[in-house]
Amino acid sequence: MKGFGTDEKAIIQVLTRRSNEQRLRIAFEFKTLYGKDLVSDLKSETSGKFEDLLVALMTPLPQFYAKELHDATAGIGTDEDVLIEVMCTMSNHEIHVIKQAYTAIYGTLLEDDLRGDTSGNFKRLMTSLCMGNRSEDFHVDQQKAREDARSLLQAGELRLGTDESVFNAVLCSRSFPQLAAIFQEYHFLTGHDIDDAIKAEFSGDLEKALRAIVKVVRNKPLFFAERLHKSMKGLGTNDRQLIRIMVTRCEVDLGDISNMFHSKYGETLQSWIEGDCSGHYKKCLLGLLGLY
Asked: Which PROSITE patterns does the UniProt entry name for this protein (predicted)?
């Protein structure tokens, strides 16, 4: 970044090949050596979506999630898609860390802001998920799975109207392996999939959120592959969503996501990014895939 012009290639290669923790450490050393703030320097040297991506990469993950959630609820309207993507995929520990970061940055509680911006049964679901109190027991109790499957059946298909509270209780408090067993039992009982039942019984954001939980239980990388596909398909690109997934998953399961993308859509994630993005922004996204 010294002197005239910017060596973007060097910036991309250094930052995309490091973990979030290492990038923060680099910024710390950078300030120690040169007395300058790395993020401010990057911002003044770059622009547009490339700048957005670099700033996202340089943000501690809990703060990054907190900002995404805050921006989804702040202002007019709510981006429920962001709330669903974050709240339905995080572990208890991650939710607690994000809540702490949120309060540190904004001085309010994440739970209060979520509740103030959502309504009805979707609001209840978000509040439940915000507790970060899902069972983390990896032991599966088949008997209990059968009972839960039966309660879901009785709360949904076997009655007029739907008792949302039963779905809320089961999908927010049972461990992921236990939920997988419950969905299997549900299939045995009814001969069809829990996903179809949710589609038939619910609508709107609540339906999206419950189906997201089902998807995450079964195949988390596929859930994110579908979100990436959605961010790029059709006219225009939802860059914010694309950046969020690439940045938050790049050291978790981006390789698996990329494989799922290929097997589901018959085209590579790389080819979609190349077709939808350009310039250093494109190169930086490919760098996160290990392809630059």
From this structure: ANNEXIN_1, ANNEXIN_2
